[in-house]
Amino acid sequence: MGTSGVQRSCHVFAAAIVVVVVLSCFICVASSEMFLFNKSTRRSGDMKLEEQRSRCDLYQGSWVYDDSYPLYNSSACSNIRKEFDCQKYGRPDCLYLSYRWQPNDCDLPRFDGQDFLKRFEGKKIMFVGDSLSLNHMQSLLCLLQTAVPNSNIIKQRNDTFSTVIFQDYGVSVILLSSHYFVDIEVEKDGRVLKLDSIKNGDIWKNMDVLIFNTWQWWYRAGPKQPWDYIEYGNKTFKDMDRMVAFRRALTTWAKWVDSDVDPTKTTVFFQGISPSHYRGEEWNETGRTNCGMEKLPMNGSTYSAGLPEASYVLQEVLSGIKKPVQLLNITTLSQLRKDAHPSSYNGFKGMDCTHWCVAGLPDTWNQLLYAELFNNCTNSKAKKIKVGI
Ligand SMILES: *[C@@H]1O[C@H](CO)[C@@H](O)[C@H](O)[C@H]1NC(C)=O
Ligand SMILES: *[C@@H]1O[C@H](CO)[C@@H](O)[C@H](O)[C@H]1NC(C)=O
Ligand SMILES: *[C@@H]1O[C@H](CO)[C@@H](O)[C@H](O)[C@H]1NC(C)=O
Ligand SMILES: *[C@@H]1O[C@H](CO)[C@@H](O)[C@H](O)[C@H]1NC(C)=O
Ligand SMILES: *[C@@H]1O[C@H](CO)[C@@H](O)[C@H](O)[C@H]1NC(C)=O
Ligand SMILES: *[C@@H]1O[C@H](CO)[C@@H](O)[C@H](O)[C@H]1NC(C)=O
Ligand SMILES: *[C@@H]1O[C@H](CO)[C@@H](O)[C@H](O)[C@H]1NC(C)=O
Questions:
Q1: Residue 73 Cβ contacting ligand 1 at under 6 Å
Q2: Where is the Trichome birefringence-like N-terminal domain (predicted)?
Q3: For a designed S-S bond to 70, which of 51, 97, 216, 345 qualifies (C-beta 3.0 to 4.6 A apart)?
Q4: What is the dihedral of CA 68, 70, 74, 80, to 10 degrees?
Q5: How many Å is the maximal CA-CA distance in the chain?
Q6: How would you class 241 by CB atoms within 10 Å of its CB: exposed for 0-12, middle for 13-18, buried for 19 or more?
Q7: What are the residue ranges in the chain where pLDDT is below 70?
Q8: Looking at residue 160, what is its pLDDT?
């Protein structure tokens, strides 16, 4: 699979570039080689590419088998956490590595790690959130590291940050672990989750790109719950409806974005709710209580269980923010991937249908991030076409 697959796909990619060169401008392609191909434009040479781009929803589509994937061999990526390194921990099937997300109205560009590093030179990207942020970040690190295997990489770590610096490009990829975004403070009666207080904001502000995510920890109870009280509006509660608490904390975060983010400096993303697979009835396998038997993605574009409630709360809060925040709307496309969790193939041998194998699904999240970050060329291409024709 590995190398030959990658080479085969390069030919496909090169062929696609030639098609676009014919249709549009050479300058644009030469300067970036990076755009969203629009299927109907490729056929008709239509001038309204820009409009079509804005209509192309990257998140509506389906999974297709493509043997030019995965994008890298996970054994070539150092330091994948034991929770995510499915191949290393003996996962016997490989099919789950060879699915590509195909949007209905355009194609996702293939992730090009070297291009990412060049375009992102001198910049800092930070993931803020729980272990799904770590999952997302580790995939990005593998995509980048395997693209420039001989470059200098520095890793730094302390209680707050985990930083990886691609020295030759001055690119920093940083994880700031934060389960709730809002603060937990130790006071005389115990640990207090303060739904209207965010003190980390000053660290976030210095980044060029921020990718937030919180959800997994909101329903934690018992010994795994890392707080004893909730505080909101100067009142203290022993507990409250967790969805309400989630909404309040997100709203606090949203206010922070509106008051503190400088959109000319910082691009803000929110990683949509990442789904788990413990209830077989959601994917037409009533009786199954985990993803252990799953080797194939779902067909089609819809997941019969619908979106999780938290994703509606998230959408509502995001729609109230005045500054630009881009939702990486990974929920539905990840729901279709009941096959992409580690299940029992991880370093602790527990059944895990919450996180995702690396390589695997999070590589697609990063392809979407790549497309959202650098979709610039599509627009300039559209202008060139209008002038040229
Ligand atoms: C990944 O690399 C390892 C070690 O070189 C090799 O044994 C394995 O077959 C490769 N896997 C794929 C899917 O190419
Ligand atoms: C996210 O994508 C799904 C699937 O395309 C869609 O149903 C949902 O409305 C989208 N959410 C937002 C906020 O766009
Ligand atoms: C952790 O490291 C970062 C730089 O990587 C530094 O700015 C920060 O102050 C450090 N935090 C602690 C608690 O040492
Ligand atoms: C909490 O109390 C402080 C000081 O009494 C007050 O300034 C603040 O407005 C109150 N906050 C809320 C959300 O009621
Ligand atoms: C669910 O399973 C039933 C029985 O096997 C089958 O008839 C039906 O088409 C399946 N539905 C989907 C959406 O796969
Ligand atoms: C999904 O589609 C493939 C190819 O069309 C088909 O062979 C397979 O049976 C379908 N699977 C389900 C669960 O419907
Ligand atoms: C878009 O292109 C302009 C000019 O080349 C550049 O300044 C800007 O940073 C680019 N934006 C993104 C998101 O790539």
A1: yes
A2: 55-107
A3: 97
A4: 160
A5: 72
A6: exposed
A7: 1-55, 376-389
A8: 82
Amino acid symbol at 87: Q
Q: Supply the pLDDT for residue 249.
A: 97
Q: Going by C-beta distance under 8 Å and a sequence separation of 6 or more, which residues neighbour residue 360? A: 70, 86, 96, 97, 139, 340
Give me the amino acid identity at 240.
M
Distance 143 CA to ligand 3 centre (A): 26
pLDDT tens digits, one per residue of 287-330:
999 999 999 999 999 999 999 999 999 999 999 999 999 999 99
| Residues 86-129 pLDDT 10s | 999 999 999 999 999 999 988 899 999 999 999 999 999 999 99
Report the candidate in 57, 60, 101, 36 with the shortest Cα–Cα distance to residue 360. Answer: 101
Residues forming a β-bridge with 325: 268
Ranges of H-type helices in the chain:
2-23, 26-32, 39-44, 49-55, 113-119, 131-147, 201-204, 242-260, 309-319, 331-335, 361-373, 376-388
Residues 6+ apart with CB under 8 A from 101: 61, 63, 108, 333, 364, 367, 368
Strands 190-194 and 183-187: antiparallel
For residue 196, the ligand 4 atom closest to its alpha carbon is: 13
